[in-house]
Design brief:
The chain is an all-alpha fold. It contains 20 helices and no strands. Helix 12 packs across helix 17, helix 12 runs antiparallel to helix 19 and helix 13 packs across helix 15.
């Protein structure tokens, strides 16, 4: 009697649907460590001009307005490059994108080492801004390729904490270099650091299993959900994305003001020494770090328990920016002491929570295939304050009756902008509702 045919194995995966990605914990966290280091270098690069502002202005004999223009030149191509690279990310691997960015950071520090002048500073900052424009969004995109939807809170917080760590580490180290070896030595050190990171990333970095456009859970989709794309007009004009952009805008205004003018304010208005200024700035960054590492894992836990993303991730970013705005409005009139330290920490550090959360809420209402492009658009829109705030502050300082009055006007204007942005984020972000309207859930 002939042997019966072997039993037919029936696949439980629908035809045309990729299998559920496997979470590679070890390599995912290695990528996370590299991304955090990437952000540390990124924000050290951003901080160096502000930390060296006083000696640069003295050496080159430039006004507040000229320094503000130099600082704002960083953002001339920042938003545009973030937007362009966001769309390119659908065709180019994160390995290539992050390597190219870090290599350009290294090159961008070189002009001022050749000749110390305003044109050299502007050229270096414009190139650096173009190379750093996509940094936060594309490194977050690279990170999300390694973590499923319900495991992104802590990695997102760690990625953004690289910003706080960058300033925390950069403030004392770069201040020491500037004080003991001249301000150009800090630019040279950052050039070498960026080059070393780019080489290490080329050896380690690769795209993860959640980066495939059809990967299940790529953007909150259920297993077996068909791959789909939506018109960008629909994606951009829903409340969650608009609210996320507003939250990022308010937070970025405080960050731009911090990088460009906070060290100079502490030196010239509060009569702090370079080391005391560096210590306070590091303390503000430490506060941001504690806030990020304490709150974002809680967001993951709330999501796993079924709490609405509106309340777990949407409301906190709006509230963080509103509280930072309130502190921004009053710290300059509080006098020196404990209250001043608390208020300035909230004003320039409390907003940091908005950065990882606005990526999480945006990711919840976009198909995985379009996530990189949307991140680029959101980053380009949300980081426009870097182009406006530094130069506007310089103009206010030069036109005011005194520098003290100029700083007060700048801080009050910043508080108003941040309050409105935080309020929009608080009211508009509703990921579950908007995902249903878009047909993603």
């Amino acid at each position: 009697m002939a042997n019966p045919p072997p039993p037919t194995v029936v696949s439980t995966v629908e035809a045309g649907t990729p299998p559920e990605p496997v979470f590679d914990r070890r390599h995912a966290w290695l990528i996370a460590a590299m991304v955090v280091t990437f952000m540390i270098v990124n924000f050290a690069d951003k901080s160096v001009l502000g930390l060296a502002a006083v000696p640069i202005m003295d050496d080159l004999g430039i006004s507040n307005s000229t320094y503000g223009a130099i600082s704002s030149s960083f953002s001339v191509l920042f938003s545009l490059s973030g937007l362009v690279v966001g769309f390119v990310s659908a065709r180019v691997s994160s390995r290539v994108l992050l390597f190219s960015m870090a290599a350009l950071w290294s090159v961008a520090q070189l002009p001022v080492l050749v000749v110390a002048s305003v044109p050299a500073l502007v050229a270096g900052r414009v190139l650096l801004g173009a190379a750093e424009g996509p940094a936060t969004s594309m490194s977050m995109h690279a990170l999300y390729k390694w973590f499923p939807l319900d495991r992104r809170g802590l990695p997102s917080a760690l990625q953004i904490s690289g910003a706080a760590l960058g300033t925390l580490i950069a403030a004392p180290v770069l201040t020491w270099l500037i004080t003991d070896f001249g301000w150009r030595s800090a630019f040279a050190a950052l050039s070498v650091t960026s080059l070393v990171w780019s080489v290490a990333w080329w050896r380690i970095g690769r795209d993860g299993p959640y980066g495939h456009p059809a990967a299940p859970h790529g953007a909150g989709a259920a297993p077996g959900q068909a791959v789909r794309r939506l018109p960008y007009r629909r994606l951009l004009l829903n409340g969650t994305v608009l609210g996320s952009i507003a939250g990022a805008f308010g937070a970025s205004w405080a960050m731009a003001l911090s990088h460009a003018w906070l060290p100079t304010y502490l030196r010239t208005q509060m009569d702090m020494s370079p080391s005391a200024t560096a210590t306070l700035i590091s303390g503000i960054s430490a506060f941001s770090l504690v806030l990020l590492l304490g709150v974002s894992p809680l967001v993951d836990a709330l999501n796993r328990r079924g709490v609405s993303s509106r309340w777990s991730a949407g409301a906190p970013q709006g509230i963080a920016v509103i509280l930072a705005a309130a502190a921004m409005a009053v710290f300059s009139s509080s006098g020196q002491g404990v209250l001043f330290v608390v208020l300035i920490a909230v004003a320039f550090g409390g907003h940091a929570l908005a950065f990882p959360l606005h990526y999480m809420t945006t990711a919840a209402v976009v198909p995985a295939a379009q996530r990189g492009a949307l991140f680029g658009i959101v980053a380009a829109s949300g980081t426009l304050p870097g182009l406006i705030a530094p130069y506007l502050t310089g103009r206010l300082l030069d036109s005011a009756e005194s520098q003290s009055a100029g700083y007060t006007s700048a801080f009050l204007l910043s508080a108003a902008v941040m309050f409105l942005a935080g309020l929009v984020a608080l009211l508009a972000i509703r990921p579950e509702r908007d995902a249903r309207r878009l047909g993603l859930r």
